[in-house]
Amino acid sequence: MLREGTEVIDVVSQSELSGAALLNSPVFNKGTAFTQDERVGLGLNGLIPPHIETLDEQAKRAYEAFKRKEDDLERHIYLRALQDTNEVLFFRLVLDHLEEMMPVVYTPGVALGCQLFSHIYRRPRGLFISYPLRQSIREILRSRPNRDVDVIVATDGERILGIGDQGVGGMGISIGKLSLYTLMGGIQPMRTLPIVLDVGTNNQERLNDPEYLGWRHNRLGEQEYEDFIEQFRETHDRRPAALLANALLNHFRESGGVNKVVFFDSCSHFPQQARQIVLRGRLRSKCRGNEQGELLPQQQAPQEVDVVFG
Fold first, then answer.
1. String of b and e for 82-113 (b: at least 16 CB within 10 Å)?
2. Quick check: is 177 catalytic?
3. What pLDDT shows up at residue 20?
4. Among 42, 63, 68, 270, which is least packed, fewest CB within 10 Å?
């Protein structure tokens, strides 16, 4: 048992993880920044090297590894792997080198990452909702890794940064946009959710690729597509307790003139090129790490979420 009043109590109460399971959680893993008390209390001794580093020291070492990568694709793969291992270190590293790393995390580097998504895929992140599983949308949403979600970015992967239809590879865009919202808007990464709505692809190169990880089918026709998007939206609109918080995907709603939730039907009110769905949240939370690599608590929880499709 952990001592009351320690920071470790907060970690355990949020994650309910210890040992190897804790180290495999990118939200709570601090790597070599775990203190000696935390290593003992959380069963980490022997699972990580004995030297205790500060976040600054971790970021310096991570930057040295980043600089050893020979091209932007390798740098993109490295940063994505770091994000899937230790989110606090990932965001600290990118913030320290924002001008250099932003083009790798997002455009233009993420475009190649989307094209090669199935070849560089390592660990699951977010939700993949494919058309054949349309009757299971509610169960899929319930299986999301983080229970409390404030902002979603979802895409159908059709129009990706000028490189066209990438099918399931569009997940890279959802992940990249949410990274920007954390970096530039202070959104807690543990309260975000990337989604790809896999409605097939008309990209023959993807369909012919034996390593392609998406639904191997041509894109849905207009009516099937609209029905699928509507089914996805209506699942959110019912908002049972187990589904996403903060009235995501609601119809127009005003709250004291401060925040507004807006739904634009990407099929009916936007042209074909606007089928990528973007949900943006105007939130008031902060994502910071202290010198021990700890994710500091939110300064203020958001009351509403702006949702924009377009």
1. bbbbbbbbbbbbbbebeeebbebbbeebbbbb
2. yes
3. 96
4. 68
**pLDDT digits 0-9 by tens, 104-161:** 999 899 999 999 999 999 999 999 999 999 999 999 999 988 888 888 888 899 888 7
Please check whether residues 28 and 136 belong to one and the same domain: no
Choose the catalytic residue: 106, 131, 212, 225: 106
Q: What is the pLDDT of residues 186-195, one digit of tens each?
A: 888 988 899 9
Whole-model pTM: value is 0.76
The tens digit of pLDDT for each residue in 245-260 reads 333 332 222 223 222 2
As a whole number of angstroms, the distance between CA 80 and CA 87 comes to 10
- Would the pLDDT of 63 be above 50? yes
Give the CATH number for residue 17. Answer: 1.20.1370.30
Give Cα 27 to chain centroid, integer Å: 11
Catalytic pick from 131, 177, 181, 212? 177
Q: Is 304 domain-assigned?
A: no
Give the strand pairing for 127-130 and 259-261: unpaired
In a shared domain, residues 14 and 139: no
Quick check: is 260 catalytic?
Answer: no
